[in-house]
Specification:
Elements (H helix, E strand, L loop, with lengths): L2 H13 L2 H38 L4 E6 L10 H8 L4 E16 L2 E10 L3 H4 L4 E4 L4 H6 L3 E4 L1 H8 L9 E4 L2 E9 L4 E2 L2 E2 L3 E5 H9 L6 E6 L5 H16 L5 E5 H44 L1 H9 L4 H38 L7 H27 L3 H6 L2
Parallel strand pairs: 3-10, 5-7
Antiparallel strand pairs: 1-11, 1-12, 2-3, 2-6, 2-11, 4-7, 5-10, 6-7, 8-9
Helix pairs in contact: 1-11, 2-9, 2-11, 2-12, 9-11, 9-12, 11-12
């Protein structure tokens, strides 16, 4: 029997019971769609993370205290030490805090970033209006502040110009001198809900400590990154006496870590999603066994008129494969639409991955052939006399 004839018979078997065929393929549809959506989310997150890290520049170093340190050795004197190193172009300290910002009846919890005038340049931020904090603000520990775009909108709305107004933080009044251009959001969280003040203001008037959360140091050039890293490491080791007292990371290290983390999470979630394909395959095997049982007489007649075992085997494998492939195609469509919905509804970045599509489609082919093999073999080995006697 020709392959085309076997294929027509296989399609005829599916068309004979379309609703059952759809329900059987549903497991494959869900499995393929889940794999595609999961990989799309993971790929989108990886691309966005890489973009954000690379946006900070290829010659940025981050210095912070060591793990499990209660008394941070990173302070103003360390900041001064790093800023004087020959391979360091600029430094910017960061002192972190949290608080509630309010203007009239509007209030919102926000991050408070204490830093200096170099922060804008080192972090590649841009102002939408106004000015940034100056060295004079740092020297005098003023309450001049710069707002993130979302915080400015939440407090002042669209009708009030934030510049020249005051926002309240605890018992303090902060004078708004600038607004930072929007950085965008991460899923449901915002990157623009923060207020920037001079770091000396937080140290003297809030924390009462000269500790610094993080120091950003920019190497003179990208090619000096490794040498600058070594220079800072040597200076801090001499100052603190312990390599466990501090941590130094660069953009390349952060990029590798972020990429590895997202890839691992994507692989884990893809494996979980692929389990539904296994369930779909078991469903296909079950229905194909039912199909063979229902068509025992048909198999007996076909064998009686000359059909060989391989013809019967091939017919049922093609039927199973067609069932699984149709589910795979519909799963790809559902996966694509689902990834777009995730992006539009949850504002989560997705990237439709052709490799994930090929993986899902290939798995659907394998599922159909693998789980259809046993029912096809059982049908092929049926005794034709038994088939003809079957009612």
């Amino acid at each position: 029997m020709r392959t085309s004839d076997s294929f027509k018979l296989a399609l005829g078997g599916l068309k004979g019971n379309p609703f059952r065929s759809f329900l059987t393929a549903l497991g494959v549809i869900i499995g393929v769609a889940a794999v595609i959506i999961t990989v799309s989310i993971g790929t989108g997150a990886k691309v966005r993370t890489q973009s954000q890290i690379q946006r900070l520049g290829s010659n940025l170093l981050t210095i912070s205290s060591g793990y499990r340190r209660q008394d941070s050795p990173i302070n103003n004197s360390v900041l001064s030490l790093i800023s004087k190193l020959s391979l360091v172009d600029k430094v910017a300290p960061v002192v972190n805090s949290q608080g509630t910002m309010s203007y009239t009846s509007n209030s919102i919890d926000s991050s408070i970033i204490g830093t200096d005038a170099n922060f804008l340049d080192i972090r590649n931020l841009q102002l939408s209006e106004g000015t940034f904090i100056t060295q004079d603000d740092v020297d005098r520990s003023t309450w001049n502040c710069v707002l993130g775009a979302d915080l400015a909108t939440e407090l002042f709305g669209e009708d009030v110009d934030p510049l020249g107004n005051y926002v309240r933080y605890d018992r303090f009044k902060l004078y708004v001198v600038g607004i930072v251009k929007t950085m965008g959001s991460e899923g449901v969280s915002s990157n623009d809900n923060y207020v920037i003040v001079p770091y000396t203001t937080l140290q003297k008037k809030v924390t009462g400590s000269k500790s610094i959360s993080t120091i950003y140091a920019r190497a003179a050039s990208a090619k000096d990154m490794t040498a600058a890293n070594d220079q800072i490491y040597a200076a801090l080791l001499e100052r603190t006496g312990s390599e466990e007292a501090f941590r130094i990371s660069n953009q390349e290290m952060l990029l590798e870590f972020a990429t590895s983390s997202t890839e691992t999470m994507t692989l884990l979630l893809t494996g979980i999603a692929a389990v539904s394909l296994l369930v779909g395959g078991i469903g296909i095997m079950n229905i194909m066994l039912v199909s063979v049982a229902e068509r025992i007489r048909e198999i007996g007649i076909r064998k009686a008129v000359g059909a060989k075992d391989r013809d019967i085997l091939w017919q049922f494998i093609l039927e199973s494969a067609a069932l699984s492939l149709s589910g795979g195609v519909m799963g790809i469509v559902v996966g694509y639409v689902g990834s777009r919905i995730v992006t539009s509804v949850f504002s989560w970045p997705t990237s439709f991955d052709t490799a994930a599509t090929a993986l899902g489609f290939g798995l659907s082919v394998f599922i159909g052939v693998f789980f259809g093999a046993y029912p096809a073999y059982k049908g092929a080995k049926l005794d034709p006399i038994e088939g003809l006697r079957h009612e």
